[in-house]
């Protein structure tokens, strides 16, 4: 009977069936909807996006509105002070489009200046880590090219919530408390109760400074930040504290429309954005494990997890060596995904023993974050991710703005001659990655199938692959795939395992040389260490969606 149920789910979703075993964090059903759907990590944000769809807006409008609300209700994760990436399926154009709205290092941000200040490696927080925030430009670009509503209307729900207040949801309250220690004096005044403590679950929170900042954006557009009075406030505040941004850095900022890169897998194709993000690591992982009989190994069995962990190590070694600002890369993404290179990396995978961190492959010539996905009745789909990098980013909140500034400078290296070496005007290596999956039809044409993403820093490519395999190999629906227990490889032989993974499996992996990473004290023991994601799958008619139980949010449709 169980096999028949799994087979039925697989047939409904268009995914192959397989044996599903092991335990998960299951607790809710997938959401089915006839017209449109939004999935996010916070209920008020999801509801704001659904209201946009019900009022006649499209998926792009809904995604931007949802992202704006998320910047308010979970301010440690995202907001106007962060960056944004997106992959869109345009129903009108019948193609995928990528958006890179990440910002560059400031004109005064140099290796020499950081060395003069006594830094031998990039600091992890503070004004010295702040790069140009790109999120606002991303909102405007998405709406301007593919949306149907103006920016003022998209941010209005966030303005009203900021002015009137909202009750803080439980998991976000826990995250707020964990990351509050990193806030500067401006951040404590703006984002803590009485400037001293994080709001408790259910406690009312008002952010009138954020409301004023969003009202300025609504009235003047993105120019209010990229050269206008809001931007001047931020730049002047940073410079007074020793920061590196200039007003010209904001004026020069531009988004980039890019072509996603993809690899096939069993009749489907996983798409990621090209560097400066780490999405290419997910593609390399998937290509490495493709020939193995993963279904026969069994879901979350010791052999199955071992192969994924070892593939992750190989892909991340290449990520660390070759990926950074595209203008500084000496190796093209196509080379890292070529048959010959993948075969050479796959040959390094020992099916019986855990390896230490491997060396990068030889190429021949040639993360605190929030995720939103939305789909509409016309067939548009959006995979959008936005982030401050760490919890509350740099920890810096310029008085009067109401939002934290990102610490994306942590993606730079102070070692010269690397793709991610620090220099003025360079893009840092990014951890945040939206994902998209198409189904390859009999005619060879790709059709949209799933928009999905999982937050969690370096966990993201690992989780992209785990969730996708849950669906394509083991026949799970989106909610089951997100519920299923995950691993998170840290470094060397250290691997974190979620509790639902059977202790006997962990013991077998330890016998192979893996070392169990005690994650109970990392990030305060928050479940988001293993990622938190959302997914929307297109059906013949309508949609099916899921939202990660590790976060407060949910998927909703209409």
Task: Report on this structure.
- By secondary structure, the chain is an alpha+beta fold.
- It has a domain at 2-32 and 258-368 and 431-557: Orthogonal Bundle (Serum Albumin, Chain A, Domain 1).
- It has helices at residues 2-13, 43-54, 59-73, 111-116, 135-146, 151-164, 170-179, 185-191, 208-220, 229-240, 247-252, 279-289, 294-297, 302-322, 333-336, 339-346, 459-472, 478-483, 503-511, and strands at 31-33, 37-40, 83-90, 95-101, 166-167, 204-205, 256-258, 261-265, 268-272, 369-375, 381-387, 435-440, 446-455, 487-491, 494-497, 515-516, 532-538, 543-547, 554-557.
- The strands form 4 sheets. It has a 7-stranded antiparallel beta sheet.
- Helix 12 crosses helix 16 (339-346).
- It is globular, with a radius of gyration of 22 Å.
Give the helices and strands, then pairings.
Blueprint lengths: L1 H12 L17 E3 L3 E4 L2 H12 L4 H15 L9 E8 L4 E7 L9 H6 L18 H12 L4 H14 L1 E2 L2 H10 L5 H7 L12 E2 L2 H13 L8 H12 L6 H6 L3 E3 L2 E5 L2 E5 L6 H11 L4 H4 L4 H21 L10 H4 L2 H8 L22 E7 L5 E7 L47 E6 L5 E10 L3 H14 L5 H6 L3 E5 L2 E4 L5 H9 L3 E2 L15 E7 L4 E5 L6 E4 L1
Parallel strand pairs: 15-16
Antiparallel strand pairs: 1-18, 2-10, 2-19, 3-4, 3-11, 4-7, 5-6, 8-9, 9-12, 10-11, 12-13, 13-17, 14-15, 17-18
Helix pairs in contact: 2-3, 3-5, 3-6, 6-9, 12-14, 12-16, 12-17, 14-19
